[in-house]
Amino acid sequence: MAAQVDVLVVGAGPVGLYFSYAMSLYGHSVYCVDPKTGPTNQSRAIVLTSRTMEMFEAKGLCGEFLEEGFISSGIRVYQKGTLIGQMAAVGDTPYAYITVVVQNKTENILNKHLEDDTGNHVHWQNELVSYTQDEDKVTAIVLDKRTGLKKQIKSKYIIGADGNHSRVRKGNPAFTFEGVTIDTKFFLIDLTVKGEGIENRIDKTNVFMTPSGHVGMIPLKPYSGDDKATTFRIFGNLDSYSRSETNNARSSHGLETSEGAPSLEHIQSHVDKMAAPFKFKLSDPMWSSYYKINERIANTFRNKRAILVGDAAHCHSPTGGQGMNLSIQDADNLAWKLSYVLKGQASNPDKLLDSYESE
Fold first, then answer.
1. If I label 263, which of 61, 92, 148, 209 is the partner at 20 to 30 A Cα–Cα?
2. What does CATH list as the number for 50-99+181-295?
3. Which of 230, 214, 216 is nearest to 282 (CA)?
């Protein structure tokens, strides 16, 4: 017998988990599926902005993120060893700073609250195969990868929170994903950094600019005072900036696993060149990846009962740490509006849901 729910959520990264949690708190039946075995064990997205923290506070989540996080108060920018600018995180908010929390912790916090606070859970190792929609429902086929069996799930709406390669978007010909491809190769790596004065660099993100690009260092842990070392996320470009004026939506966006991880020696040499005359000793890499960027947006965020959120709807450069934050804000905006519609409290349901995209 087919499962029947209010909402089928496809994808259980930070966006799908937050949306599932919000909709469950609002009293709706939610069925969330993801082909992974569980929350990620990688650091991936690490920045939470003040607006995201305000939304977490409204859901009673903020305290745990502050306990797990590290506060960064802004950005310093250097060129050839000279400080050329600083930007402080300010605003009329109790969270006038950047909260640094690695993505595996973010997902585990959200997953735990989904289970403990609402009694709901993610159906891990379950993958969307296809779906159809009519006037009053969505009918989806989901594959249980553990058993090899397929099941039918009927829902009032289907939410694509499944990233750049969204099956919800690709499985519906009404959606397109237009934009351009950035040909530049970028890297990121989490590791230990030693160097003279490193203890003075942990309060802000440090960016080192050259004519050929940049290298940035985001502190991940407080300075321990031991051997003048601390943990940073280092990121930057490895070749000159260029982009292709193409609408090839198959182009990769995000972390690149096909090339393997960048070597410590390669990144050390690159940082030596980009951050000169400052000298940093890199060691003990914990996680690293190359990544590529597309700048794309779906032609519409909603087609009837299928709605896209996060990277499924739009993707862009991770510079500034806005990717996950904008995506969680998508989920927060859509959740209360869809809840009003499902509860029959919206005088004009289509107009309210359409306002999700415009806002």
1. 209
2. 3.30.9.10
3. 230
Secondary structure element (H or E) that encloses residue 239, with its range: none
Model-level pTM greater than 0.70?
yes
Rg (CA), the chain: 21
Helix (H) or strand (E) run with residue 295 in it: strand 281-298
d(CA 138, CA 255): 31
Amino acid in the structure at residue 180: V
Tens of pLDDT, residues 47-88? 999 999 999 999 999 999 999 998 999 999 999 999 999 998
Assess contact for 14 and 32: CB atoms under 8 A.
Answer: no
Instruction: Check: CB of residue 106 under 8 Å from CB of residue 329.
Output: no
Q: Are 31 and 122 in contact, with CB atoms under 8 Å apart?
A: no
The DSSP call for residue 276 is T
Long-range contact list for 118-123, CB < 8 A, 24+ apart?
Answer: 118/21, 118/24, 118/25, 119/24, 120/20, 120/21, 120/24, 120/30, 120/32, 121/32, 122/12, 122/17, 122/20, 122/32, 122/33, 122/34, 123/31, 123/32, 123/33, 123/34
- Going by C-alpha positions, the residue among 121, 166, 167, 122 that lies closest to residue 141 is 167
Structure-derived torsion over alpha carbons of residues 302, 307, 312, 315, reported in degrees to the nearest 10: 50
**What is the second-level CATH architecture of the domain 3-46+102-176+299-358?**
3-Layer(bba) Sandwich (3.50)
